[in-house]
Amino acid sequence: TAAPAQTNSAVAATATVITNIASLVTNDPSLGDGTPLGLIQDAALVIEHDRVVWAGENSKAPATDNRVDAAGRAVFPGFVDSHSHLVFAGDRTAEFNARMSGRPYAAGGIRTTVAATRAADEGELEANLVRHLREALRQGTTTFETKSGYGLTTEDEARALRLAARHTDEVTYLGAHIVAPEYADDPAGYVELVTGPMLDACAPHARWIDVFCERGAFDGDQARAILTAGAARGLHPRIHANQLSYGPGVQLAVELDAASADHCTHLTDADVDALAHSATVATLLPGAEFSTRAEWPDARRLLDAGATVALSTDCNSGSSYTSSVPFCIALAVRDMGMTPDEALWSATAGGARALRRTDVGRLAPGSRADLVLLDAPSHVHLAYRPGVPLVSEVWRAGARVA
Ligand code: NIG
Ligand code: FE
């Protein structure tokens, strides 16, 4: 029972009102200043149970029994990190060191994590997952997607997805991360496994299917076969596309109505055009370019063409070992041509779009009450004050969680 914005009818006395918000990002253009951020200055927000029921000017806030004083802090929707790889064990410090001495990144490094992940017991894997989730939560992430992809056997992939599903609804089957070492001489045999017995074991635990479509991983035809097989089992496609080189991934994503094409670092004009005329979100992962010293994806080009852009961490121990969405926002603003407003939108509403979710990534009546209180007067400070731990409180589903 959502009350209309700007009125105080139908708000129960037992609701919680957050008052004195210096600037509130709703991501509802019908609220506030009419921009995509739906920004309201001097705002208040009312929460009942797990939902937002009212957002508007502080002076018009309804009176309720529970009052939280934001005391001039900014409030925006919790980050929606739509791309991470958090079921892993081990460490790739040596590989990072070698890269920072000039060695290039290659997909082959994934094998190091596969060996460590297979060797880890379930308790160790889950503890590692939870540790990274808590780390992300403290930095404002309230919705996250995570993938398998470091098991590459039927048992190890299913185990990863079962574990992930205990902690999020957004679980992605990535058996096609690289060809498993045992199949190095028989990639076709591995694709048969991924689309056969492994898919049977994994489909019940996942919502999405993903492929690393890249030289050294899977080509366009293999990727199409894998994503199509997944779709036939009710898994919706998303793709690691055009990360290390130009390739067919983005066009395939659009052809299959993938929710998202992720990385998008090397794009032709035709790729940009295809994304702009599709419902496929371009998910940019600047932590990967930072950590692999690669060229930045061109967010400006995608936005100017009309594509929808999401910003996520790609958190994994190899190519992007950061769980920090604020860090990714700062990179996107400094080096990818995004404005602070665009970067905030992409890390919240954009991530929700990439997961085809309408309940998160916004703070309008009816949304899940997932939010960040920032120790600053506006979200712009995320990029303006890079590296500073400004996240002061995190709420998920109406309750303070960090
Ligand atoms: O998104 N690109 C493929 N997969 C990961 C890297 C995984 C790894 O290096 O362990 C990525 O960057
Ligand atoms: Fe990734």
TrEMBL record:
The question of whether Iron is a record keyword is answered with yes
**Molecular functions (GO terms):** imidazolonepropionase activity
* Entry EC number(s): 3.5.2.7
| Main location group | cytoplasm
Q: In which pathway does it act?
A: Amino-acid degradation; L-histidine degradation into L-glutamate; N-formimidoyl-L-glutamate from L-histidine: step 3/3
A Pfam family per the record: Amidohydro_1
Q: Which UniProt keywords apply?
A: Cytoplasm, Histidine metabolism, Hydrolase, Iron, Metal-binding, Zinc
Which catalysed reactions does the entry list for this protein? 4-imidazolone-5-propanoate + H2O = N-formimidoyl-L-glutamate
Positions bound to N-formimidoyl-L-glutamate: Y150, N316, G318
Source superkingdom: Bacteria
Q: Which cofactor does it need?
A: Zn(2+); Fe(3+)
Domain Amidohydrolase-related, first and last residues per copy: 75-379
Cite the cofactor comment.
Answer: Binds 1 zinc or iron ion per subunit.
List positions binding 4-imidazolone-5-propanoate.
R92, Y150, H177, Q243, S319
Is Zinc among this UniProt entry's keywords? Answer: yes
Binding-site list for Fe(3+): H83, H85, H240, D314
| Subcellular localization, as worded in the UniProt entry | Cytoplasm
Xref: HAMAP family: HutI
Q: Which family does it belong to?
A: Belongs to the metallo-dependent hydrolases superfamily. HutI family.
| Function of the protein | Catalyzes the hydrolytic cleavage of the carbon-nitrogen bond in imidazolone-5-propanoate to yield N-formimidoyl-L-glutamate. It is the third step in the universal histidine degradation pathway.
**Name of the protein described by the UniProt record:** Imidazolonepropionase
Query: What gene name does this entry carry?
Result: hutI
